[in-house]
Write a structure and sequence with these properties.
Elements (H helix, E strand, L loop, with lengths): L5 E7 L2 H17 L4 E7 L2 H4 L15 H8 L5 E5 L13 E6 L7 E4 L14 E3 L3 H10 L4 E3 L5 H9 L5 E5 H6 L8 E3 L13 E6 L3 H7 L5 H17 L7 E7 L5 E8 L6 E8 L4 H14 L2 H6 L4
Parallel strand pairs: 1-2, 1-3, 6-7, 6-8
Antiparallel strand pairs: 3-10, 4-10, 5-8, 5-9, 11-12, 12-13
Length: 311
């Protein structure tokens, strides 16, 4: 089947989201040079609301308007960060994932105007982040630091840091590279220091199920290793039924020998309780691995921990 003459791509309208769309357009052009792509930017509830996400549908606040444009036929392809797509409920009826692009860096970065590392930050340093995952892990490992709520896209957070609303920031390494600001990184924090969110560094391409022409055209961008990792991670989160305020972290790794591993953690918001699991699978279905790791954490009390957190 030949590729469509035109593919309309819907995405959030933030600078980072548009940079992600630019990557998709470039990769599509390399495979289908005759196909024209157009961008349909939308402003999502999550981009407009600067309060607690749990008050506006949690993570779905970053995808609802994008999904609506896709389902209404205003666009043919949606580009999402996987970490923003809720896993406690299915994709909107009538849509499907067509591809997961090759994964970018999964790590977090510390941004400090003076170039200090995390271990060098003095007592009382205000670290800007609204991520429960980051707050819980800093509370556990660096309890002398004070996390302050920080919402907005990466550019806006950097501006707020410059305005003195915090002393340091935690941001995704991949995101800073996407907006062309790796220069602000003071320290890259490995997963052993700050475990990443589910779906970190992965872009998902979503289509309407009946649009087989677009699905076939964009499926060439799917990266097999990233597909396996993301499938395991999202099944893990689905089984746990984690919500936007749940301090849940984890990442899967597709190894060269065909093995797949998944490390995951669930925290209390104060970081005083940490549940850990790390399992390996060979040729097993990635979803089976995700389920197994979730069950291991449920046996440790993850259900009670998650349900005790307001959302």
């Amino acid at each position: 089947m030949s590729a469509p003459e035109l593919i309309r791509i819907v995405s959030r309208d933030s600078p980072m989201a548009l940079a992600q769309v630019a990557r998709v357009r470039a990769e599509l052009a390399a495979h289908h040079p005759a196909t024209v792509t157009e961008v349909v930017p939308v402003r999502t509830t999550g981009d407009k609301w600067m309060g607690d996400l749990s008050q506006v549908e949690g993570k779905g606040a970053f995808t609802k308007e994008v999904d609506a444009a896709l389902l209404a036929g205003e666009a043919d392809l949606a580009v999402h960060c996987v970490k923003d797509i809720p896993a406690d409920r299915p994709l909107p009826a009538g849509t499907t994932f067509a591809a997961f692009l090759e994964r970018d860096d999964i790590r977090d970065a510390l941004v400090h105007p003076g170039g200090l590392t995390l271990d060098e930050l003095p007592d009382g340093t205000r670290v800007g982040t609204s991520s429960g995952r980051r707050v819980a892990q800093l509370a556990s490992s660096h309890p002398h630091l004070n996390c302050v709520p920080f919402r907005g896209n990466a550019n806006r957070r950097l501006a707020k840091l410059a305005e003195g609303e915090a002393d340091a920031l935690l941001l995704a390494v991949a995101g800073l590279h996407r907006i062309g600001r790796p220069d602000v990184i003071s320290e890259v924090l490995g997963p052993e220091t700050i475990c990443p969110p589910i779906g970190a560094g992965v872009l998902a391409l979503q289509c309407r199920e009946e649009d087989t022409a677009t699905i076939d055209a964009v499926s060439v961008l799917n990266h097999p290793g990233t597909y396996r990792e993301t499938t395991a991670e999202r099944m893990f989160l689905h089984v746990l039924q984690g919500h936007c305020n749940s301090p849940i972290a984890g990442y899967a790794t597709a190894h060269r020998n065909g093995d797949l591993s998944l490390r995951a953690c669930v925290f209390t918001p104060d970081g005083k309780t940490v549940l850990n699991a790390h399992e390996w699978a060979g040729p097993l279905d990635p979803a089976t691995l995700g389920t197994s790791v979730a069950v291991t954490l449920l046996r440790q009390g993850a259900r009670e921990l998650i349900d005790s957190i307001a959302h």
